[in-house]
Amino acid sequence: MILQNKKRLILTSLVILLPMAVGLLVWEKLPQVEEGWNPSLFAVFGPSLTMLAAHWICILAACLDRSNDDRNHKVQGMVLWICPMLSLFVNAVFYSMLLGAKFNMANLMVVFLGLLFAVIGNYLPKCRMNSTIGIKVPWAYTSEENWNATHRLGGKLWTVGGIVMILCAFLPGDMGIIVTLLGLIPLIVVPTVYSWQFYKKEKASGKALLPFYGTTDPRLMKGSLIAVLVILAGVCFLMFSGNIQVQYGDDAFTIEASYYDDLTVSYDSIDDIEYREENLSGSRTMGFASARLLMGYFENEELGTYTRYTYTNPGACILLTVGEKTLVLSGRDEAETQAIYQELLAWTAVN
């Protein structure tokens, strides 16, 4: 594959590294040192070099699989261009953020993920049986018919799923990313169950089947299945877990948040505290969002850009004005939010 695609490998590698050259050209316009680290240094070199390493690891893995020889040319072409396109997208996002552009990061990621699934879904039916590219469930390797049927179904499902993901970007708030992450589950589970049922029917009919794991090392296949299950479990855990706690000190309070940076605010820097018996709407520009927590930088017409540490649906929130910045905070529910509000009032009165 390397010799056959030497020119394309060189071209795709150069495309991956192209954003580094662009970053160096606009280096003077990028922010330099912030809070002890240089975000521009990471943005210019980090994503491109990481993508280049991932690109060559994928290519070498495909080359080691002899079943890819002289087969799956269209699919191999798709694999060659995934990392370059991802490099251009990620770097464009980083540079835009550093240059002050404001956009909904979650919706942008949803659109890109949808496009990726739609493109891969279009190629899946063209993917012949091999050990490195495709829907690698064990039952698909028991016959060419199972493999082809599983990939035809998976291709249709992933293409439609990708289009639905793109449409999810138009949902309000962070609903798009939440629906998209939950939607990944059927895209993985449905082809897996279908392949297993296809295998059972073929076995019951007495059809001669290939060894259960085909050309794939059983340990690798089991490891892949375990990895998928672990990833799905991890996504579900992140979506529905985590807490926000407020610790009060003599001079300042600290917001300790799961999956996001803690924040310390001194009492004497607070100019105003407001309690609202409603959920504050806004779109996330950077940070963390799940079915349970909303944290990071948000913006709306009333407040402009503000920092948020809240639960997804607390029923109430606290608005803190700290200089020219606004901090939005909440507890798990209205009662806990009210308790935080009273504590902050008491501590700021003392200070």
Secondary-structure topology with pairs:
Layout: H1 6-25, H2 39-64, H3 73-98, H4 105-123, H5 144-168, H6 175-204, H7 218-240, E1 244-248, E2 252-257, E3 263-266, E4 270-276, E5 283-289, E6 293-300, E7 304-311, E8 317-322, E9 325-329, H8 334-350
Parallel strand pairs: 7-9
Antiparallel strand pairs: 1-2, 2-3, 4-8, 5-6, 6-7, 8-9
Helix pairs in contact: 1-2, 1-3, 2-3, 3-4, 4-5, 5-6, 6-7
Distance between the termini: 69 Å
Helix-strand makeup class: alpha+beta
Low-confidence stretches: 33-37
Q: Total domains, how many? A: 3
Report the average pLDDT across residues: 81
Give the count of helical stretches.
Answer: 8
Reported for the largest beta sheet, the result is: 6 strands, mixed
Measured by DSSP, the beta-strand proportion falls in 15-25%
Spatial shape: globular
Q: What does this protein look like?
A:
It contains 8 helices and 9 strands. Helix 1 packs antiparallel against helix 2 (39-64) and helix 4 (105-123) runs antiparallel to helix 5 (144-168). Mean pLDDT is 81; it is low at 33-37. By secondary structure, it is of the alpha+beta class. A 6-stranded mixed sheet has the order 4-8-9-7-6-5, covered by helices on one side. The protein folds into 3 domains: 1-101, no CATH class; 104-240, no CATH class; 244-350, no CATH class.
